[in-house]
Sequence to fold (214 residues):
Amino acid sequence: MNQSTTGQHRIDIEKLGVLNYLGELGVTGVESRLGKLAGKSTAVRSEVVKNGFVDEDSVDLAFPSEKRLGVRVGLNGVPHGCILVLFPPTSAKRAVRMMLADTNEDVADVSNDMAVSSIVELGGMVANGFLDALADTFDQHIATWPPVTRNSQLPQIIERAVTDEDDRGLYLETKFHITSHDIDVELYLFPENEVFVEILNRLDVDAVAAGVES
Fold:
């Protein structure tokens, strides 16, 4: 059987493609969750889905040194790990505008606390919508911790996600666009490597692919 080594873990080659399918499924979950925002059109377009492995020695080579704002949402269950929902600065401003669209607040005048609260709320919705779709596919509940803000260069945010706990490095990267508000979103899932690999190797490739295409 063809296998790929990811860190110290082996994944069947065909299951690497499943990771990308999972990314696409996750985006549909995001669109479903954001669709519950009252009075807001929130069509979502998937743009990039890929997977890889990174550690503290390779993070600066793997990710551009660019500013990102967003949240880290810890996974409280199986698999352990975290999910990052990040926005480039311009998109972060548009995200605040979207979240405050049904208020009388002028975005230019909102406090930093209110702007951060808007990013945290949206980031939490995106993370949980993505995870809902994966949980349905895995047939497994995925619990989360409350979102924690992140505001730094992308490599530093990624490095912290990888080194905060043991057995991290495998990741699923999904970039998508909230078209109605011109917001770019980057999502990175960092699961507990060993458990996630076990889950992947149990999945039915054809069934997951059919779920994306339906």
Summary: The beta strands are 3-6, 9-12, 44-53, 67-75, 81-87, 148-153, 170-178, 183-191. Residues 1-7 have pLDDT under 50 and may be disordered. Helices lie at 13-34, 59-62, 89-99, 112-138, 154-163, 193-202, 205-213. The chain has seven helices and eight strands.
